[in-house]
Amino acid sequence: EQIKKGKYDHYMQKEIHEQPDSLTTTMRGRLIRGGESKMKSVVLGGLKDHLRTIRRSRRIVFIGCGTSYNAALAARPIVEELSGVPVTMELASDLVDRQGPIYREDTAVFVSQSGETADTLQALEYAKSHGALCVGITNTVGSAIARGTHCGVHINAGCEIGVASTKAYTSQIAVMTMLALALGDDSISSRIRREAIIDDFFDLPSKVREVLKLDIEMKELANLLMEEQSLLIFGRGYNYATALEGALKVKEVALMHSEGILAGEMKHGPLALVDETLPIIVVATCDATFSKQQSVIQQLKARKGRLIVMCTKGDAPSLCSSGACRFIEVPHVEDCLQPIINIVPLQLLAYHLTVLRGYNVDQPRNLAKSVTTQ
Ligand code: AGP
Questions:
Q1: CB of 278 closer than 6 A to ligand 1?
Q2: Which end of the chain is more exposed for a tag (fewer CB within 10 A), N or C?
C-alpha cells in the first residue's frame, strides 16, 4: 500500500499529505503521558543504555547531508538547551574533506533517511576510527548506517519514494527533539518546559493536518511565482533550518534558484539583492526571535521588498499593516516543534511550482534518491 500513489498524482504529493500519519508512527510508544506518577517522559529503546554516556560527552556532533543535515540543524537548539552539551554541525563530506577533529569523548549522531548515503557512511567510518560513540538516526531498518553505528533510533516514517525528502524530514526533527527530551530527563529545572513540549507533540498530527489545508493557497502562490528566476527565504533560530530546507526543496524539484538565508546575516550582504521584483519569504512565526524578525520585515519593506511573510495565525496585522505583504498563516506549537509545521507550506509550494513549471516531481533531473557514490 505504501508504494502506491493512491489518490495522489505524485509520490512527493502523497508523502507531504501523509505527514500527520508518519509523525504519529514516529511518536508511537515513545511519548509517555500520565500513569501513576502523572510524569510525562520519552522512551527511546535503542538509546536507553547510552543516555548517560551521551550526557557526559564533550560534545554532540550532528552529521548528515542535504535534508537530513537540515533536520539536525532544526533540532540543534533544543538538544543544546535540554542536554546542556554543546552541539556542532557537520556536513558529512566536509568533515571527511577536512579530516576535522573527532574525539573519543564525542557523541557523533549520523542522520540519514536511506542509511546508505556514501558521504555519511564515510564520515561514520572516520568517527568510529577516532573512538566516538556513534548514534544512527535512519528511516531504513538494516541499512548500512543502522548496522554500522553503536546504537540508534529508527524514525519509522514509512517508505519514502519521492527523491525530495518530505515526511522523513519532519520525522527526523521529531526524533531528535525526543532525543533532547530523553537527554534532559534527569533535570528538575527543565521539567515544565519538557512537559509543554510533550503536550504539543500529542497535538502535532492535528496541527499538521490543519497546515495542509493551505494547499490551495500555496498553489495560488506557486502560480504567482512560477515565472521567477529566484526566491529567497529568510529564517533564524529554530527556523534557519526551515529557510535552508524550503530553498533546497524549491531548487531540487522546481529547478528554480532559491537560497535559504540566516536573517541575522541579511545586513552582511544579502540586503543588496532586495528590490521590488525579487520574491522573499520571511519566516516570522512566534518565538524568542520574533521581534528581530519584525525588524527584518521593516527593513525589507523600507527597500520595497516583495514580501511573503510566514507568521503565526493572528499575528499578520502586527507584522505588516499596509497590505504590502502576502501572508502564510500557520498554527502555533512550542518553538522547537514549529519547524515541523513551518516546512509544510514550503513543501507544498515546491510541489506546485514543479507541476506548474512542467518538471518531473518524483525524479528531478540529475538526482538520485540515495547518493551511494562520492
Ligand atoms: C532531499 O530532498 C535530498 N534528496 C537530499 O538532500 C538527501 O536528503 C541527501 O542526499 C541525504 O540523504 P539521506 O538522508 O538518505 O542520507
A1: no
A2: N
Cell digits of residue 242: 526551515
Q: Which of 47, 230, 287, 252 is nearest to 154 (CA)?
A: 47
Strands 257-262 and 151-154: unpaired
C-beta of 121 in contact with ligand 1 (< 6 A): no
Q: For residue 256, what pLDDT band results from cuts at 50, 70 and 90?
A: very high
Which cell is 176 given? 531528535
Hey, whose CA ends up nearest to atom 7 of ligand 1?
A: 66
User: 197-220 burial, b if ≥16 CB within 10 A, otherwise e?
Assistant: bbebbeebbebbebbbebbebbbe
C-alpha–C-alpha distance, residues 257 and 233, integer Å = 11
Q: What is the pLDDT of residue 319?
A: 84
Q: Which of 63, 54, 66, 35 is nearest to 260 (CA)?
A: 66
pLDDT digits (tens, 9 = 90+) for 146-157: 999 999 999 999
| Atom from ligand 1 closest to the CA of residue 66 | 6
Q: What is the mean pLDDT of residues 166-185?
A: 97
On whether the CB atoms of residues 89 and 81 are closer than 8 A, the answer is no
Q: Is the dihedral of CA 186, 191, 197, 200 positive or negative?
A: positive
Strands 230-235 and 151-154: unpaired
Are the CB atoms for 205 and 20 separated by under 8 Å? Answer: yes
* Grid cell in block for residue 184: 534532559
| Minimum CA distance residue for ligand 1 atom 2 | 164
User: Regarding predicted confidence, which is higher, 37 or 273?
Assistant: 273
Amino acid at 296: V
| pLDDT > 90: percent of the chain | 88
Q: Which atom of ligand 1 is nearest to the CA of 165?
A: 2
* Ligand 1 near 164 CB (within 6 A): yes
Q: Is the dihedral of CA 179, 183, 185, 189 positive or negative?
A: negative
- Report the distance separating Cα 319 and Cα 290, nearest Å: 10
Nearest Cα residue to 81 out of 9, 187, 10, 168: 187
138 lines ligand 1 (CB under 6 A): no
Nearest to 113 by CA among 267, 306, 6, 245: 245
Q: Which DSSP category does 143 fall into?
A: -
Q: Is the pLDDT of residue 172 over 70?
A: yes
